[in-house]
Structures are given as structure tokens and as C-alpha cells.
Fold this sequence. Notes:
Layout: H1 3-13, H2 18-27, H3 37-49, E1 53-58, E2 66-71, H4 73-84, H5 95-102, H6 112-137, H7 148-184
Antiparallel strand pairs: 1-2
Amino acid sequence: xxxxxxxxxxxxxxxxxxxxxxxxxxxxxxxxxxxxxxxxxxxxxxxxxxxxxxxxxxxxxxxxxxxxxxxxxxxxxxxxxxxxxxxxxxxxxxxxxxxxxxxxxxxxxxxxxxxxxxxxxxxxxxxxxxxxxxxxxxxxxxxxxxxxxxxxxxxxxxxxxxxxxxxxxxxxxxxxxxxxxxxxx
Length: 185
């Protein structure tokens, strides 16, 4: 997937400035498609030049004017073409898994702190996802009352929640195994 497609999806969900878009990437989209602010601004400029997006100047009080981007017809067409193209299932590159296998040739206990650090990062991300789900998908706007876009956002979020829970279960298994092996040595 190109960054362009992630930007198109985000702008179709809600038009915004480059800064607002970069913040959305930091808060949500970035969990499954990472991009720096510089990359986002560079791609926005190219997409505007290609006619995929349009920009309008928005006056602000006590601040410089900002450009608010929205998707133009050629951008919608490009996204539609991409949505209909088949994609290959992703291959996983997991450096920690290679380290865990490699620990058999060194001191497995030396890896415990690193696995605990990864576990904490995934626990933090799960807490962030769950807080977002409570904020955005509970209460009077519970499933059944959401529009199609919200339903699809929620199903992606539920996938992230399931992934983080699975990763935490696996890391707990890894830690138990490392502790057992260390105790046997």
C-alpha cells in the first residue's frame, strides 16, 4: 500500500490540514501504517499536483492561514482502483522472534528484560485501543447505530485489539518459557 491510499482514506473520513492529518496518523492510522510528518507533507504536495486532492485556504484568528485538503474525483478514482486490486497476504518480519530463537545459543535469561519491554509496549497500545473503543464506540452510538464508515473503523480497531491481546498472550508464554529455561540452567 502506498502512503497515498492511507491519506486518501483519512481525508475521505474527514478533510483536514496537513498538521491535522499528521496528528491523525500519530493517533490512529499510524498504528497500522506509519509515516513521518515530512513524508505526509511531501505526499500531500505530490497528490495536490497530480489532482488527487484539492486544497482551500482557511483563515484562522491569531494564527497563519491553513490549507485544508479534501479528496478530488481523480483521488476517489485512484482509491477505487486500488480497493479492487488483489493484494498478497503480508509476510511477518519479527525481529524479536528471531532473537528468541537465537537465545538458545546464548543466555535465554538475558532476553527477559527485552521481552518484558515489548510486553509493556503492547499492553500500553492495548489500553490505548480499548480507551478509543470506549470513547468512540460505546454508549448511545453503539453498534447498530453506526454508519458504514464508523462500522469499518470499529472493525479495524477490533482487529488491533485482538492482535494486541494475542501478542500479550504470546509474550506471556515466551516469558514463562524463558524463566523456566533460566531456572533449569
